[in-house]
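quick one before i forget lol
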Amino acid sequence: MLSEHLDMVIVGHLSRDIIVVDGGRQEATGGAVYFAAFAAKPACSKILVITKLALADVDLLSDFWQKGIPVLPLFSLKTTIMEDSFDSGENYVRKSKVLSLASSFRIEEIPVKSAEVFYLAGLMQGEIPETLIEELSRYGKIALDVQGFLRAPGPGTLVLSEWREKEKYLPYVHFLKADRREAHFLTGNSEIEDMIRSIHEWGVKEILITDDQGVTVSDGIITLHKPFDRYRIEARTGRGDTCFASYLSWRINHDTKKSLDYCLRITNRKLCKPGPYRC
């Protein structure tokens, strides 16, 4: 058990990503936890990544080691493997397919009992049990990527699936991140202002919603929007993870507006090329 108080603990599966853009194929390390760690590191001196993967895929950890990002690997029979496809004929809307899935996290595998933020960076349902939200909220603020509770493997692609227990667990969430499609599915609303209102009514304190144009943040008092710079579609993977993690890292010691400004600077730099944010 770690007794040290940390700035941020990021929990989620690393993945082997297969990225297909207009038929062109490349492979890379991925997962929300991967992009989030690199984006949070510049502002967080005390950070820990907790991830799961097969022992045979331990090479996926090398980027963390090279950049001095502390990581606690938990081993699973399988590593998560994802295929993300973008096609110009469909306006580059991302389609994700699950090829392999690591095992779920358990509370006894999280040896941290004090942190400013526990960032639950799941990729899909089943990766992070809902009970971890309530249990970890005793030890720090919960930051939740809602895709980890909405996305589920469907025939040929990931689909959005109802989160039936959302009203039970969202009151334990301080920060919530969603893209516009996920926020629409979660709330049933079409306008961002209405999505934000509904999510606040469920008890979430701060909300970050991304779309292709930019990011909107609400802390319950003010709502702010900032546009992204133009970017290459090949760099699109990890955009929301980078945005949320950089916002959270700055928000620990700064207000909402300054944190949004900071996250845009980090995210725009990341979107210049594929891969995670590099200082």
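fyi The chain has one domain: 6-270.
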